[in-house]
Structures are given as structure tokens and as C-alpha cells.
């Protein structure tokens, strides 16, 4: 990621992992297989990455005490399903990191589960893209990372229910075709990464949403 984009991302982020109160031992709650730790003061971040073998339904006290957190880490936990119950129990979440799991489906009514989410990171999963409906519906999501999901197709309806989306990562997938029409529903799109796909023809920036400033397209794989 280039330094210009890092600066842009930091300046536009609100979740604790990048801005305001960075996640640290002082403001991060950790859930372990046999116990947990919760900061003495405000809890901004919740890290569940060490609790993959634990029944989360049995730790209601933990989730009650961290319910105001805005950042959740559940990356590399071998999850096969979207953690709906966990996310719903943390109503102030702005950023959710589910990187490196085996999640296939995202809930269509995301707005009912994650009321405040602005950033959803799901790279290195197996996300399924529906052909005839939107991936999910959210009026708050601003950043969506779908890198390395072996995605082969997207359509004009894929992101049509995310009107506030500004940052979209589709790099390192298996896309062979994209059209500017697929991004028309995203009037606020600022950053789009399509690199490391199999695209031989790429939409001209002039036909893309007017606010698009960062358009990563140069590096493409060759079809074998």
C-alpha cells in the first residue's frame, strides 16, 4: 500500500485501530480459552482471536462489559460463518476484522446486525457473490475489503445497497471482466483497487464515479 493512500486512510478513519484511541493493552479487551482481560478504563477494542475453541454463548458477562467497544478483531479463527451474534452484541462497532477465515456468506441485512459499522475487512475468506442481488445492505459501510476471496464475477447490483461506500478492495481475486456500470451505485467512491485480477479491459477513470481519486488497476495477472 503506498504512503499516499495510508495517509488518506488514516485521515478518514474513525475506528480505534487507526484513529482516536489506537488499540493497545490499555484499551483492548482479550478473550482467552479459560479467562479474559478487560481494561480498567474504557474499552475501545475487543480481541477474540485467541478464543476460537471457546463457546462464546457462555461468556455473556464479558460481552456485557465490552458492549461499547468500536473495534472487533476475529481474524484467523477458522470461522466458517459470519459471527452474527457477536457483532449484534456490540452495537457501537465501527470496524470489524474477519480476515483469514473461511466465511462464505455475508448477511444481506447487515444494517440490522451491525448498526454502526463503517469498515468491514474480510480478505482471505471465500466470500460468495450473489448474481441477482446485492452482497448486503448497509447505509453506514464506508470501507469494504474483499481481497483474496477468489471472486470471479461482480454485477451492477453487487454493491447497489451500500450508498456510502468510499473504499473498496477487490484486488487479488479472479475477476476477468468489470464494467463502469458496476460502480455507478457508489457516488461517494474514493478508492478502488482492482489489481492482481485477470482484467484485460478496464473501465476508464473518466466513466467511473466522479469522486474517485485512487484507482489501482495497473498490475494484472495473465490468463494461463
Automatic annotation (TrEMBL):
Keywords, sorted A to Z: Leucine-rich repeat, Repeat, Signal
Residue spans crossing the bilayer: none
Pfam assignment, any one: LRR_8
Residues of the signal peptide: 1-20
InterPro entries registered for this protein in UniProt: Leu-rich_rpt, Leu-rich_rpt_typical-subtyp, LRR_dom_sf, SLRP
Keyword Transmembrane helix belongs to the record: no
Name of the protein described by the UniProt record: LRRNT domain-containing protein
PROSITE patterns, per database record: LRR
Protein's UniProt keywords contain Transferase: no
Amino acid at each position: 500500500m503506498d504512503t499516499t493512500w495510508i495517509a488518506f486512510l488514516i485521515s478518514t478513519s474513525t475506528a480505534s485501530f487507526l484513529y482516536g484511541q489506537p488499540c493497545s493493552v490499555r484499551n483492548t479487551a482479550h478473550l482467552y480459552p479459560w479467562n479474559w482481560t478487560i481494561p480498567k478504563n474504557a474499552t475501545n477494542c475487543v480481541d477474540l482471536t485467541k478464543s476460537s475453541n471457546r463457546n462464546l454463548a457462555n461468556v455473556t458477562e464479558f460481552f456485557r462489559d465490552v458492549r461499547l467497544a468500536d473495534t472487533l478483531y476475529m481474524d484467523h479463527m477458522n470461522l466458517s460463518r459470519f459471527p452474527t451474534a457477536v457483532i449484534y452484541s456490540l452495537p457501537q462497532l465501527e470496524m470489524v476484522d474477519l480476515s483469514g477465515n473461511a466465511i462464505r456468506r455475508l448477511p444481506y441485512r447487515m444494517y440490522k446486525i451491525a448498526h454502526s459499522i463503517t469498515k468491514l475487512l474480510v480478505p482471505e475468506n471465500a466470500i460468495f457473490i450473489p448474481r441477482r442481488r446485492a452482497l448486503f445492505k448497509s447505509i453506514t459501510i464506508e470501507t469494504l475489503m474483499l481481497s483474496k476471496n477468489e471472486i470471479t464475477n461482480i454485477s451492477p447490483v453487487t454493491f447497489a445497497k451500500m450508498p456510502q461506500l468510499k473504499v473498496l478492495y477487490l484486488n487479488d481475486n479472479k475477476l476477468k471482466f468489470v464494467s463502469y456500470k458496476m460502480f455507478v451505485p457508489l457516488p461517494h467512491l474514493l478508492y478502488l483497487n482492482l489489481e492482481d485480477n485477470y482484467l484485460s479491459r478496464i473501465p476508464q477513470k473518466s466513466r467511473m464515479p466522479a469522486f474517485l481519486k485512487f484507482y489501482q488497476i495497473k498490475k494484472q495477472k495473465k490468463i494461463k
